[in-house]
Write a structure and sequence with these properties.
The protein is an alpha+beta fold. Helix content is 26%, strand content 28%. The chain is built from four helices and five strands. Strands 4-3-2-1-5 form a five-stranded antiparallel β-sheet. The longest helix has 11 residues. It is globular and about 40 Å long.
């Protein structure tokens, strides 16, 4: 299982995981989930439920990835298959994102 810590403006919002069966799970952490002042990280991942699951990488996280030649270059330099979106996300979204959301790889 691979995991990433999802940060919203440097506050931990939750954990994104890829399970061994290929299922993706995003779960808000307890503190963030219970704080009504903290917004959901995305309209597609509302705080109406604590845990979200998907058979594919959630579109919100997929859209944090680089596109085109930038993704190609990242995959070559990091030696990651350009179709391995989750690994690319974990290796690139800790620093190179636009906006408040970052994903830090959990070792």
């Amino acid at each position: 299982m691979k995991q990433g810590r999802v940060m919203n403006n440097d506050l931990e919002a939750g954990i994104l995981s890829k399970l061994d069966d290929g299922t993706y799970v995003f779960e808000y952490n307890d503190t963030y989930y219970r704080d009504d002042a903290k917004p959901p990280i995305s309209l597609t991942l509302p705080k109406l439920q604590k845990q979200h699951t998907s058979k594919t990488l959630f579109p919100f996280f997929f859209n944090l990835l680089s596109e085109g030649s930038n993704r190609e270059l990242q995959s070559i330099r990091l030696k990651i298959d350009k179709e391995d979106h989750f690994s690319l996300l974990l290796k690139t979204a800790a620093h190179e994102t636009i906006g408040a959301i970052r994903v830090e790889e959990i070792s």
